[in-house]
Amino acid sequence: LSGAGSGVRLEAVLDVEMPLVVRFGRTVMPLRTLAELGPGSVIELDRLAGEPVDILVNDRLIARGEVVVVDENFGVRVVEVIRRGQDEERTG
Predict the structure, then answer these.
(1) For the purposes of burial, counting CB atoms within 10 Å of the CB of 55, is it exposed (0-12), middle (13-18) or buried (19 or more)?
(2) Contact, 71 vs 86, CB < 8 A?
(3) Residues 46/57, Cβ–Cβ less than 8 Å
(4) Suppose 54 and one of 9, 23, 73, 75 were both cysteines; which one would form an S-S bond, judging by CB atoms 3.0 to 4.6 Å apart?
(5) DSSP character at residue 83
(6) How far apart are CA 70 and CA 61, in angstroms?
(7) Are the CB atoms for 64 and 54 separated by under 8 Å?
(8) Could you report the per-residue pLDDT of 3-54, keeping only the tens digit for each?
(9) Which residues make Cβ contacts (< 8 Å) with residue 79, sequence separation at least 6?
(10) Contacts for 47 with CB less than 8 Å, ≥ 6 apart
């Protein structure tokens, strides 16, 4: 989106809604263990408590943030915006 009139073309897509995902961590487990999960089960993730969470759009890492509480809801405060090419070091 460069060149003359690019601002107009960019403006046309700025209202397009995209799914945003906040990822606290990941884990891999056998299907047998998944089938045994129930209320009270704890799933250990690959992140330390207090470590930034990943913010993804279209499965692409765009930022990292910290979990906050807003009124009675969870929220995420953006602490780092990921520049293109920078995300390869942590995703995979």
Answers:
(1) buried
(2) no
(3) no
(4) 23
(5) P
(6) 23
(7) yes
(8) 555 567 888 888 889 999 999 999 999 999 999 999 999 999 999 988 999 9
(9) 52, 63, 64, 65, 66
(10) 24, 25, 53
d(CA 44, CA 8): 47
How confident is the model over 46-78, as pLDDT tens digits? 999 889 999 999 999 999 999 999 999 999 999
Distance CA 11, CA 15 (A): 8
Amino acid letter, residue 78: V
Question: pTM to 2 decimals?
Answer: 0.70
C-alpha angle 29-82-88 in degrees, rounded to nearest 5: 50
Phi-psi region at 84: left, alpha or beta (left = phi > 0; alpha = psi -120 to 50): beta
Can you say whether residue 13 is alpha, beta or left, with left for phi > 0 and alpha for psi between -120 and 50 degrees?
alpha
User: What distances in angstroms separate CA 13 from CA 16, 17, 20, 26, 61, one per listed residue?
Assistant: 5, 9, 16, 32, 20
